[in-house]
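$ run holo --ligand "magnesium ion" --emit C-alpha cells
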Amino acid sequence: MLSIEKLTRTFGQNTAVDKVSFTVEKPAMIGIIGRSGAGKSTLLRMINRLTDATSGRILFEGRDVTALKGGDKRAWQSDCAMIFQQFNLVPRMDVVSNVLHGTLNRRSTLATMFNLYPDADIHRAIEILDRLGIADHAPKRAEALSGGQQQRVAIARALMQDPRIVLADEPIASLDPMNAQLVMDDLRRIHEEDGRTVIANLHTLDTARRYCDRVIGMLHGRVVFDGTPAQLTTGVARDIYGADASFSEDSTSTSIETLDRNTARALREAEAAI
Ligand SMILES: Nc1ncnc2c1ncn2[C@@H]1O[C@H](COP(=O)(O)OP(=O)(O)OP(=O)(O)O)[C@@H](O)[C@H]1O
Ligand SMILES: [Mg+2]
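-- output --
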C-alpha cells in the first residue's frame, strides 16, 4: 500500500532523514519514536509533501507521490491528512468552519473566499464532531476550547478530507494525561473502525507501546528498530534513544499509565473504605 524507499532529506551538511525505508502492507497504526532531532517530523512532512525529499521515493499503491505536482500533489495531501502538536486551527474562527477547512483542497478559491460551504459538507462536519464527542462546541470559537478539544477539532478537520492515511506529529505532546488518552483513543478508533492507516510521532514509549501495532525507532535520521511493541525491550529502547546505562523508561513516559495506576489505587482505596 505505502512504500517508503531510501527516503533522504538533507539540510546543508545535516542529514535529517537518512535512507529511510519501510512498507505498510495493510492499514495499520504505527508509532514513530526517537529522541529530539532524530528526524521524525521531517519524515512525516516528506510523506505529506510539506517538505521535499532530497532523494528516495514514496509509493502509494504503486504511484510515486514524491513526483506529484499541482492538483495531484494537493489531492495526495488530502489523502494523507496531517495533525500537529499545536493543533493549527484558526483560533478566532468557529469550530465548524475550522473543520470545513478540511475540504479546502477540493474547493475553488472563490467559494473559499466567501465562506460558501455546501450543506452536505456542513452536515458531515457536524456528524464528525458528534462522533468525536464535541458537537456541542460546534458554534464556539476554536480558541474557547481546551487543548484536548482543540486537538479533536483538528482530527475532525483531518477526517473531513476522508484521508487514507492520518499523519500525526506529536499529537498529544501539549495535552494533559486525560486528554492525551482521549486523543489517542480517537486515533485508534479512526484506524480500527475506518480502516485508515495512522502514523504518529510519539515522544513517549508507553504511548507507542499501548496504542500501536508497530513501532519504528529512529536515531540520527535512520530507522534503527521496526517491530511490534513486544519486541521493543528496554535494551532496544535504550539503543533507540541513544541513552547510556542511566537510561530509564520513566524519562520517556507520559503519565497515561501513571494515571491508570493512580486510578487503580484510588479505586482500591475507595473499596477499602467501604
Ligand atoms: N527546516 C529545517 N532547516 C534546517 N534544519 C532542519 C529543518 N527541519 C529540521 N531540521 C533538522 O533536521 C533534524 C531532524 O529534525 P526533526 O524536526 O525532523 O526531528 P524530530 O525527530 O522531529 O525532533 P523532535 O522530537 O524535537 O520534534 C534536526 O537536526 C533539525 O535541526
Ligand atoms: Mg518533531
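-- notes --
The chain has ten helices and ten strands.
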